[in-house]
Amino acid sequence: MANALLSKGLAQGDRVILYVGNSLELVVAVAALWKVGALPIPITTWTVGRELAFLVADSKPFAVLYGPDQEAAVQTADLPACVMHITTAASDRGLDLTSLVEAVAEGPPPSLPPSPDDAMIGYTSGTTGNPKGAILTHANLITAQLLVSTYCGLRGDDIYMIMTPIAHRVGMARLVTCFSLGASVVVMPKFDPTDAVSLITQHRVTVISLVPTVARLLLEWIEATGETCESLRAVTATGEAFPVLLKERLAALLPHIGLWVLYGMTEGGVPAVLRPDEQILKPTSVGRPLPGVEIRLVDEAGADAAQGDSGEVLLRSGAPGQAMVAREYFDRPEVNRETYKNGWFSTGDVGRFDEDGYLYLVDRVKDMIVSGGLNIYSREVELVLESAPAVREVVVVAGPDKDFGECVVAYVALKPGHEANLEVLIAHCRNYIAGYKKPKYVFILESLPRNVNGKAMKSDLRARAPQDIADASIDRC
Fold first, then answer.
1. Mean pLDDT, to the nearest integer, of 395-404?
2. Which residue of 99, 119, 177, 327 pairs with 138 in a disulfide if CB–CB is 3.0 to 4.6 A?
3. Which of 292, 304, 290 is nearest to 261 (CA)?
4. Hey, what long-range contacts does 252-258 have (CB within 8 A, 24 or more apart)?
5. Is 310 exposed, middle or buried (0-12, 13-18, 19+ CB in 10 A)?
6. Global confidence as pTM
7. Confidence of residue 127 (pLDDT cuts 50, 70, 90)
8. What b/e readout covers 440-472, taking b as 16+ CB neighbours within 10 angstroms?
């Protein structure tokens, strides 16, 4: 495949969007692009035409590789004529990948110089706006993989399973595990809890990686069926804040499994880890910094936050691109100047350290709610609401308030068969947080809006909050 792409004019540093689901074609395409020094840009097949059009315009790719199921979205996106279309099945819309590969000679492609080291572009999830493409180097991918594997005791003889899209950071990390450790990886084309448990049993899978959404679905199935997944020995949990209640359910259902909670992000790799023996000791922490990673907390003026105080999380791990931290954002000079300063990367997360050096994520900088001059961390309110018996998922955002500037607005999805209302949920909050932090409005939704990577879209909910408040029949206080 590498030779076929070279024959069509692909050059080192060119970018190729991989718009295909988890499949052999996707895995081989990633390897082929790395062999020729090009940058794969894997995106999920949930991406719709308008989103695809933005990613193409932003990344300026040499080509887009897609399958039959993505043809309609590609046509809707109306891609520029200069972008080559390559299809995984014969189609009059583009070059057939199979025919392309069969037409060229075998043998290794020309060797590459040691630099530039750029490996791929990973687009951020875009929960607060348009996604940005982080340029990750081979050093980034390998360093993060080896640090995490060594720290967490992951081995080359483990059998791993990818349950989330490889286009997502968590799935790609497991693919890099395969390449870096020579490990076997079982790939699910699409997550289904029944199939997941069956594949774990069939292939004797020993390590899986979970994000909260997948964990909820998997645990619900295990609870209903009594499955034991006896071959599993380790679970790594990442993607977003991993709720304590999910940890407790996992420990109760599968007590033989070690849970590793990873503080991870596209641009910063995995800067901190909470070990299995620390889950009870520090259940709400994301752990301590990994060896080779520095974490600094700063206030709004850029000064170091005092011990115990919250501040924005800054990361440093060698120069950007050399170890954990991505080299830069693609074609975003202003964002790079704002985000990369004096060798430190600004994550946009708000965190605090306890007296033992454990890191706690408090919120996102942009998600802080300022009501009556008081700072309210949306994540703190979310954690409290998530502990309510009827609540399955929740997102808390700022809403307009004529008296206090902003108020707390919660959007809640309930567990199947459960009921709750504003009064019940606010009463629950009163037992855990100060009165000024409790939601002024609670809106029950069947499900939360999600982006292409499955993360709840706070930006969408924040945008609709003013109208939802205006439509509310009773002014809550």
1. 86
2. 119
3. 290
4. 253/219, 253/222, 253/223, 254/222, 254/228, 254/229, 256/230, 256/232, 257/229, 257/232, 257/233, 258/233, 258/234
5. buried
6. 0.81
7. very low
8. bbbbbeeebeebbbbbbbbbbbbebbeeebeeb
* Calpha distance 263→324 (Å, rounded): 12
- Distance, in Å, from the CA atom of 284 to the CA atom of 386, rounded to the nearest integer, reads 13
Residue 459 CA, distance from chain mean position: 16
The CA distance from 63 to 74, in Å, is 12
**112 contacts 12 by C-beta, under 8 angstroms:** yes
Instruction: List, for residues 12-69, the tens digit of each pLDDT value.
Output: 999 999 999 999 999 999 999 999 999 999 998 887 667 788 899 999 999 999 999 9
CA angle 319, 322, 327 (to 5 degrees): 75
Quickly tell me which residue has 């081979």 as its tokens: 138
pLDDT at res. 126: 52
Q: Give the residue carrying structure tokens 């975003």.
A: 332
Instruction: For residue 456, name the pLDDT band (cuts at 50, 70, 90).
Output: confident
Question: How much is the pLDDT for 14?
Answer: 97
Q: Determine the Cα–Cα distance for residues 118 and 131; give it in Å rounded to an integer.
A: 19
Count the Cβ atoms, other than its own, within 10 Å of residue 378: 25
CA atoms within a 13 Å half-sphere pointing along the CA-CB vector of 456: 23
Contact 343, 384 (CB under 8 A): no
State the average pLDDT over residues 424-433.
86
Mean pLDDT, the chain, whole residue set: 90
The structural domains of the chain, ordered by start, are: 2-113 (3.40.50.980), 133-364 (3.40.50.12780), 368-471 (3.30.300.30)
pLDDT over 60 (residue 453): no
pLDDT tens across 178-222, in order?
Answer: 899 999 999 999 999 999 999 999 999 999 998 887 888 899 999
| Amino acid, res. 192 | D
What tokens were used for 165? 């899209």
CA angle 276-282-288, nearest 5°? 75
